[in-house]
Amino acid sequence: MDHQRSVTLLYLLAGLAGGLLVRSAGLQVVTYESLNDPTLLGVVSLTTLLGVVGGIATFFGLSRNAKATEFSESAISEMSRVTWPSRDETTHNTGIVIGAALGFGVLMFVYDSIWATIVKQALYSGASK
Question: What are the structural domain ranges in the chain?
């Protein structure tokens, strides 16, 4: 089964992420070294240009790599065979998780309040005023 469109979209997203990573790293270096980020031809900064080049390099590097393409196609093929939960199941399970998190949060608040009271009594009960 050919998933070329999905793989290309995946590589475009990876290229975008790679470009943002390169630009962010460039900005960190410029900031750390207290340098100016030069503007080229009054249009684009150097770090942005490096990010675009890094994104393009990521895209073409992945698209030319046979192992990456084979892996991506097999991963997309496996995802099509997954049995996804229905909307009702997802809503129900989300409610359970939120309820459990809130219950645990309340329980931890109660325990923390009790321990705070015990510690205050132990530390400050004999303090002179």
Answer: 4-80, 89-129
